[in-house]
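Quick log. Single chain, no ligands specified.
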Amino acid sequence: MYDFAIIGGGIVGLSTGMAITQRYPHAKILVLEKESHWAFHQTGNNSGVIHSGIYYKPGSFKAKFCRDGCRSMVEFCQEHGIDYEVCGKVIVATNEQELPRLENLFKRGLENGIQVKRISPEEVKEIEPHVRCVGGIQVFSTGIANYKQVCLKYAELIQQQGGELRLNTKVEKIISQGNHQVLETNNGSFATRFVINCAGLYSDRIAKLGKVDPQAKIVPFRGEYYELTPEKRYLVKGLIYPVPNPEFPFLGVHFTRMIDGSVHAGPNAVLSLKREGYKKTDFDLRDFAEVMTYPGFWKLAAKHADEGIQEIIRSFSKAAFTRSLQQLIPEVQAEDLVPTHAGVRAQALMGDGKLVDDFLIIHGDNSVHVCNAPSPAATSSIEIGKAIVAQIPHQSHLSPTTIP
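-> predicted structure:
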């Protein structure tokens, strides 16, 4: 009998496992992951950015966890020798119409307690010489990290405290039996007193297996990237972002220098026809049918039709993708870009067509379900793990310690 079983071996599941070992050092912990290695999906395909928290609504979980997580992630990387760099970033307005939105973003950064600075086009050029803009914001605390290394370290720390980690183990059924639950998998059955669902792209389905209403449906959005050729990497020193449209849930195509020195450009955001669909040709009938028959999706699509069409055009037209990037760096040409990996974002969507804007954590009987944890979940992972563990009802048979 396990005290805690965590479903999902991405960065949130592993950080939660680590937080449990800190809170309940004598607990018997199990982490189940259906893939052959950790951080296979969202974590392993993200941009590697340590976000500052500037974008998020003041007072929201995202704002608090991201701001605090920015610090705790850097400290974790320092403590464990993980590759990272606090390089800062610039957010720039490319035309006069974007300046009011840039100013609102600057004020939001101040409200969220983030070190930000208004900068002129000339000051932007001192940081990023090849950017063309009419104004900008410098965000000092943004960084980059190797989140795969972070996940491996989380897993190692769980194992050091006696936690059990199982790969290639997919949860297929959850059976409630009195004061505990049984997880039936393709690799045997496991009894546990408490279940924590961190299944990412499948978190809504796992919640339903546990007889819990996820309150939203996961809709997968694929983000496609290009990479600058090595001889053109000089065009980007750090991180360069446009001013996002506050009505649209994605940040717009941007430039990110990765921890390995490569420079990624993107992503766009298009509906994926499969929950784990990293290629345009990937298709799953069940996943596709779920989205197409969900009223919330059509309400969302109607609201953002213009933006959605532009994202699809960028997906199929390298020229259109290049033009979007040229808004930031005019020197970039199509021949400077080569396709690289895509990622899939698990975005929770309500039946009324509203995207779940914040992290969504739902409680069931002897269970907690993380049903919306897209970006900035990697940055916030240590804080999310602590928050989940703090919400677990007192386990009378275990002696808790105080999490620092």
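The mean pLDDT is 94.
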